[in-house]
Amino acid sequence: MKINDSEKENVKTAAPVEEAKVADKKEEKPKEKKKREKKTRTMTVEEILNSGMDVTQLKTGNDKKVKIKVKQKSKLKRREARMGYLFTFPWLVGAALLLIYPIFNSFWFMFHRAFAGAAGMEIRVMPNPMANFDKFFLKETKSLITLVPEYITKMILSVPVIVVFALLMAMLLNLPLKGKGIFRTIYFLPVIVVSGPVMSYLAGSGANTITAVDTQAINNTINSVLPSFLASGVNSVMNSIITILWYSGVQILIFLAAIQKIDTSLYEAAKIDGGSGWECFWKITLPTIKPMIMLNAIYTLVSLSGDSNYNPIIVNIQDRAFGSQSATYGGYGYACIYAWIFSVIVLILVGIILLLFAPKKDAYTKQIKKVKRLEKKTRKQLAKTQRRMERNNKKFEKHLEKQKAGKVKVKGGLGNE
Amino acid sequence: MSKKEKEPKQPKQPKQKKKTRFTKDKFRKFMMGTKDDLGFLKKLFAYVILICIGFIFLYPIFKMISVSMMNLDDLLDSSVQWIPKNIQTSNYRIALKALDFWQSLWDSILIAGIPTLIQVVVCAFVGYGFARFNFKLKGPMMGLMIFSFILPVSVTMIPNFVLYSQLGWTGSLKSFIIPALLGQGLKSQIFILICWTFFKQVPQALIEAAQIDGAGYFKSFYRIAIPSAAGALLVVFLFSFVWYWNEEYLTHTFVYGNNDSKTLYHTLVLQLRKFNDNFASAAASTNGSGTSSGNGSTPTTINEAYRMAATLVSMLPLLIMYFVLQRQFVESVDKTGITGE
């Protein structure tokens, strides 16, 4: 809805601008006679299109003194854009300093031998700048071919499980029950425990698995029912189901905050109209918290991917970067290659999530987008023509000069003025 | 408005009118509930699930509590599972001493609190900028932000460390504060995203109305957007605090920096890491002071019980904080009820 409105505005504002430009043109008309004297004349794309000027004519250099002006946004829009930059300014500075710089640095490391030496970071130039890459593809491809599909199936299975589980828990915690506060505190425990030093103790003492449940029986059933490539993934999820529960603390809290933000009058209205709790959930709760579901899915994916307890690839990267004693140690640049390849994979998965949850555009918005794209295209074409025209002009002038100097014979075709 | 309407809803118990005959319909209503009220069965179901899954989360904590109170004999005795034969609180006393509890608590609060406060403010600011305004570079900027979230920490960590030490930020709290100030703190991206989604849900009409009434961009931000997204800010605060509190590796590398010898900030988590070293001296001094713990076992060697006691103690402040703050959830909802019309 909101997007629609703004798009409509755009279209609306475009029309008055045109009118205004037409009015401008009336004023400009007397000037137009002095066109020859003026060096350049600025025109917007709309003006050029409206004036019935032949775009192809521009090419020939007939109307060489026209400069294309990019349509300006309304004043309010420009001010809002400025405010947008102002609000995000801290982040922009931070991104430039603490994000883009390290990223470029890491690219640079890839072509060097970088390792932690006695005096901090030591960087050596390698004889073959691609040596890291050669080594990487030689040594790691084999393990990556098995690790990456494993990782992807694990993610595809566990992310929905965590998100749905977190949503259910948040719904339950939001019910008007007695002892809500205590329950909420208990469900906050995973947030503290997972990020803290306690988790490794727990994993060590086996407290994060259900000892009572016969997982073997479950595994066998899964193996007999599902095809083998799925079964291994499902099994690993089943085996680590308790770990999965532990990792859903953050998501529960985000959902809880989101659910509580839903306007209660919506539910009241729905109830008056005879909606049941089930319908309310599907028609009110779920659509309202859809962005939160997306957010949680992304968070789950990223946090699971980055967790060394859960994802063997991260352990590999850390080994290659820091574990100078281990056999797989390859220096920092080498680890960077690994990390970048891994992040591209994660990026693709995030892209899938974004696609799944992207708001559907209606036909109207699509139409507007189409028109806008067309407009942009024409503008680009015009600018291109303009540039070509200027180039031609220069050539032509040079040519004329040369002709004046009598160095070159007159050639036909390049304007016979 | 909504406050008044909500009040009669909450205290309702399973339906039981004064003195009526017990009919099938009544029974059904009691069990399944009406539209305003959860029935007995539904409530039971909710409680059972909440308790069952809550138990999974509580199980290790219970285990830790029980282990932390055992003495060496109980630890070795395989017949003692949960309840120790004689409950020993001296474990805690020694653990507190080994952790240097009060000093490290203060350090932890400093090291988690200051960056967190800054982070909450900055993330709300940036998130509002992304949610409310349209500008040309918004798409690429958000893309870059999400990408930086995806990027494994190990990629940016070493260049960042080199940069920080060149700028002289390492070895002080600056190495936490300045990145937080620039929206690049610990997991800032997720906080910005949380704020973004919440601010996006603030009705645009409300902000426009405020602007017509003369509020500027900043005023409409902190008078309208902030109160209506209070829940989100609370969540951001909680997560940020907990994550900074528990951050062991970054604290060690950045805040400690190269001057490890200088005693800077000993957070509880770092103390926990060095617990084995600190333990011996603490145990010795406790024994030497003459107040023996009652039973004969001399705590000169470290065992699981002490470590568990120390771990529990390092988690406890977070739990208390959350228990106090979670009330705020409900209050912030009331606030949003007014504005979110």
Concise synopsis of the structure shown:
By secondary structure, chain A is mainly α.
Explained architecture:
The complex is a heterodimer of chains A (417) and B (341). In chain A, helix 7 packs across helix 11 (228-239), helix 7 (141-174) crosses helix 16 and helix 17 packs antiparallel against helix 18. The model of chain A is unreliable at 1-39 and 59-64 (pLDDT under 50). Chain A has 417 residues and is mainly α. In chain A, a hairpin with a 2-residue loop joins strand 3 and strand 4 (120-125). The longest helix of chain A has 43 residues, at 363-405. Chain A has a two-stranded parallel sheet with strand order 1-2. A two-stranded antiparallel ribbon of chain A has the order 3-4. Chain A has helices spanning 2-33, 45-50, 55-60, 75-87, 89-110, 131-139, 141-174, 180-195, 198-205, 215-225, 228-239, 241-246, 249-261, 264-272, 277-288, 290-305, 312-322, 332-357, 363-405; strands at 41-44, 66-69, 112-117, 120-125. With 341 residues, chain B is mainly α. Helices cover 71% and strands 0% of the residues of chain B. Chain B has helices spanning 2-6, 24-32, 40-68, 72-76, 90-99, 101-132, 138-150, 153-167, 174-181, 188-201, 204-212, 217-228, 230-246, 249-256, 268-273, 275-288, 304-325, 327-339. In chain B, helix 3 (40-68) packs antiparallel against helix 17, helix 5 packs across helix 17 (304-325) and helix 6 (101-132) crosses helix 10. Chain B is flat. Mean pLDDT of chain B is 76; it is low at 1-8, 288-298 and 333-341. The chains are: A mainly alpha (417), B mainly alpha (341). Chains A and B meet through helix 4, helix 5, helix 7, helix 8 and helix 9 of A and helix 1, helix 3, helix 6, helix 7 and helix 8 of B.
